[in-house]
Amino acid sequence: MKFTAQQIAGILEGDVVGNPEVEVSKLAKIEEGKKGTLTFLANPKYKSYIYSTEASITIVDKAFEPENPITTTLIKVEDAYKAFSKLLEYYNQIKFNKSGIEEPCFISESVKQGDNIYIGAFSYLGDNVVIGNNVKIFPNSYIGDNVTIGDNTMIFSGAKIYAECLIGNGCVINSGAIIGADGFGFAPNEKGEYSKVPQTGNVILEDFVDIGAGTTIDRATLGSTVIRRGVKLDNQIQIAHNVEIGKNTVIAAQTGIAGSTKIGENCQIGGQVGIVGHITIGNNVKIQAQSGIGRNVKDNEVLQGSPALSYGDYNKSYVYFKNLPKIVKDLNEIQKTVNGNS
After folding, report:
1. Is 241 noted as a catalytic residue in this protein?
2. pLDDT, tens digit, 9 for 90 and up, residues 202-227
3. Which of 141, 152, 241, 252 is catalytic?
4. Please, are residues 146 and 128 in contact by the beta-carbon 8 Å criterion?
5. Which CB contacts under 8 angstroms, 24+ apart, belong to 54-61?
6. How many CA atoms lie within 13 A of 132 on its CB side?
7. What span, in angstroms and rounded, lies between the C-alpha atoms of 75 and 8?
8. Cα-Cα end-to-end distance for the chain
9. DSSP secondary structure letters along 144-159
10. Peptide bond into 104 cis (omega under 30)
11. What's the CATH number for 101-314?
12. 266 and 278 in contact (C-beta within 8 Å)?
C-alpha cells in the first residue's frame, strides 16, 4: 500500500516541505533509505544522513532547517520520534487489519463471536469460548474451552491459551506463548517418587498486557495467576503458578519467577533475573540483569547481584572483589613480614 507525503502529513498533523505527491510504501532507517521509503530524523547524531539519504520522505522536528541541499521531502512535526512511533502504530493497524474466518479451522458450535474478528487457518477454538470485537487470532493458534478474550486483542500464530483462562482488552500474545499450562506441582511419596498435584486454577491477563514470544505463564494450583493491567513481558519468560504481577511492570527476557511470588506496580526487571517463590516485591522496584532475588523487597529498592544487594552496596563491594587477588597478595606479604619479625 502506498501513501503520499500529503496523506502522511494529514495523519501526523504535520507540514510538507517538498513534493506533497511523492509516494512511499516501505519504512527504513535514515542511513539505509531508498527511493519509495519513509524515514525520520530525531537524534542529532544522525543529522548528516539527511543530506545523503535516498528516502523519499523524512519526518523531522519543526525546528529543523537544512544547512545543505537535500533531495528528500520533509514532513515537519512537533516531535519526530513520537510522530514516527504513531505512524508505526498506524502501519501495524493496516498490516494486521484482517477479518473473516479462514479454512480449515475448528470452531465449536458454542463459541460466541464478536464483530469484525479474524480467525486464521488451522486454529482451534474449544467449547464456550467467548471472543470480543476486533479480535485477531492468527493461524495455528489454540484456544481451550471456556476461554474469554476481550476486545481488540491480537493472538499471533502458534500461541496456546489453555482452558478457563481470561484475556483482557487490547492484549498482545506473541507466537509460541503458552498461557495456562500446568504449574510445576509435584509431591514426594513414601517411595521417593513424585505425584502430580492437580493444577485447577487459571491465568488472568488484565487489559493492555503484552506477552512476548515463547513466554509461559502457568495456571494456578487454586485461584488465579494474575498479570495486571499494562504489564509488558519480553520473550522467553517463565511465570510460575499463583504469581501476581502488578500493573505497568516490565520484565526482560529469560527471567524466571517461582510460584506464589507477588510483584508490585511499576517495577522494572532486567533479563535473566531469578526470583524465588513465596516472596513479595514492592512497587517501583528496579532489578538489574542476572540478579538473584531470594528475599522480600521493599518499595523503591534498586538491586543487583546474586544474591542481590542494593545497587550502591553492590558497586562498592565489586570494587573490592575485582581487586581481591591484589588484596590477598598484599595480605600474604604482610603475613610474611610479621612472621619474619617474630
Report:
1. yes
2. 999 999 999 999 999 999 999 999 99
3. 241
4. yes
5. 55/24, 55/28, 55/30, 56/5, 56/22, 56/23, 56/24, 57/5, 57/8, 57/22, 57/24, 58/30, 58/33, 59/12, 59/14, 59/83, 59/84, 59/87
6. 15
7. 8
8. 89
9. -TT-EE-TT-EE-TT-
10. yes
11. 2.160.10.10
12. no
Q: Give the span between the Cα atoms of 148 and 132, in whole angstroms.
A: 8
Nearest-CA neighbor of 70 among 43, 42, 47? 47
> What are the tens digits of pLDDT across the range 92-102?
888 888 899 99
| DSSP H or E run through 188 | strand 186-188
Which pTM does this prediction carry? 0.82
Grid look-up 487459571 returns 202
Task: Band the pLDDT of 328: cuts 50, 70, 90.
Answer: confident
Cα torsion through 289, 290, 292, 297, rounded to 10: 0
Residues 3-95: name the CATH superfamily: MurE/MurF, N-terminal domain (3.40.1390.10)
Please name the amino acid found at residue 196.
K
